[in-house]
Amino acid sequence: MALLAGLGLAYQFNAQAAEVVKMDRIVAIVDQAVVTEQELESRIATVTAQFKKQGTELPAEAILSKQILERLITDTLQLQYAAQTGLKVDDNQLDKTIGRIAEQNQLSLAEFTEALAKDGVSMTKFRADIRNEITLARLREREVDGRVNVSESEIDNFLTSQAANNENQDEYEIAHLLIRTPEEGATEDIQKAKTKVDKALSELNGGVSFAKVSASYSDAPNALEGGSLGWKSAAQMPALFLDALKAMQVGEVSAPLRSPNGFHVLKLNNKRGGNSPLVIQQTHARHILIKLSEIMSEKDGKLKIDGIKERLDNGEKFEALARQYSEDSTASSGGDLNWVNPGDTVPQFEKAMNELKDLQISMPVRTQFGWHLIQVMERRSQDMSKEAARLKARQEIRAKKADEAYQDWIRELRDRAYVEIRLEDKF
Q1: What are the backbone angles phi and psi of residue 180, rounded to the nearest 5°?
Q2: Three-class SS state of 228
Q3: Would you call 247 exposed, middle or buried from its count of C-beta atoms within 10 A (0-12, 13-18, 19+)?
């Protein structure tokens, strides 16, 4: 009996040991670190889920495994290099990032933690993954992106080449929501989706913002980001979308568009390219800023800005008080911000500014920078087509050069490293 018990204990111990070995099996050695089979399988599961969610066809298992393992090796090399060169992400920055992610998902931190747990992800693992993502982004910015320059002559040559090749096609800034239907949906499923899209359209026509309707109804991956697809050229869009957009005016919402994926609704936010001018509303504004700090509390800052507002209401000159009290670089010019484009300022500031009449002074406005008083001097409509074309050219040239430089840097990093793959049999 004792012998049987001993054998049982031995079997249990050996089984546990075998399980540990299996869990910790090394699939690649990367300099001083390793990639384990568990890490590989976890990443494969994540990528597979993303592909399925996006409705993208998966590559063959062997190809997917090889690609993901190569990505893990590359990430490991970069993280090792970041650690060796002193690049770290502190807990405070990590907490803020995770807080923003939870907020974007309209969840408290506790609710977000619970949602992760339901998906089988611990907050400890999620924090580690986000820390790595931030580290990799900062490393690329430091080693590559920050060193890429684009000259004015490069932009001139790019635009000349575009004109010669007649590539100046119309582009559309669009938002999109999708009500998905099963690939071989029954009539009942399609009718449910049609009812849902009709309800979404009813809210849009009733004045509810596209972003809110997208977050409420859309099945698209970017639903919680307002459904924005940014700027898309004709070549980047399916014919179904392009045909609808050509007949739409800026600000208009399309009728439901049916595709094999489901029902789509588009909103045309802007249009540019070809002979279409990009006209934007600019605001000439000035402000007075009282910053908050350990010395200047929220209460004291509010009292100070209220006092300045009272003096303005009693006829004192805005520019004089800005020079005396404003705590930013515009103080010397009387708080003059010059001509401000949409998106140049933080949302709270822009909203308050847009609500003012010419020469009107705002009530105190609180932003992340402190307390502001804003005055609108005048407004104008400005054709920014040339500026937009140059900006787009700069961004495209910079992105291309940065990507090429990054690939070269990764190749050099890989060539200098010792890498041994131990799962060749699976490929």
Answers
A1: -75, 145
A2: strand
A3: exposed
- CA dihedral (378, 379, 385, 389) in degrees, to 10, reads 60
The alpha carbon of 395 is separated from its chain's Cα centroid by a whole number of angstroms, namely 16
Domain ranges across the chain: 26-141+419-426, 169-272, 279-383
175-211 confidence digits (pLDDT tens) = 999 888 876 667 888 888 899 899 999 989 888 888 8
**CATH no. of 169-272:** 3.10.50.40
Q: Is the pTM of this model over 0.70?
A: no
Give the DSSP H/E element, type plus range, for residue 403.
Answer: helix 385-416
CA 37 – CA 124 distance, rounded (Å): 20
Assigned CATH class of 26-141+419-426? mainly alpha
Sign of CA dihedral 391, 392, 393, 394: positive
214 neighbors 104 (Cβ within 8 angstroms): no
* Residue 301 clears pLDDT 80, i.e. is over it: yes
Q: Which CATH number describes the domain made up of 279-383?
A: 3.10.50.40
Tell me the CA distances in angstroms from 292 to 31, 114, 134, 304, 372, one per residue in order.
47, 35, 28, 11, 11
Can you tell me whether residue 354 is helix, strand or coil? helix
- If you search the block for the tokens 């089979």, which residue do you land on? 37
Same fold yes or no, 169-272 and 279-383: yes
According to DSSP, the residues that pair with 284 across neighbouring strands are 339, 378
Maximum mean pLDDT: which of 27-41, 240-254, 273-287: 240-254
Record the tokens describing residue 217, joined without a space.
Answer: 């109804």
Residue 162: per-residue pLDDT: 67
Query: Would you state the structure tokens that stand for residue 313, as one six-digit string?
Result: 């209401």
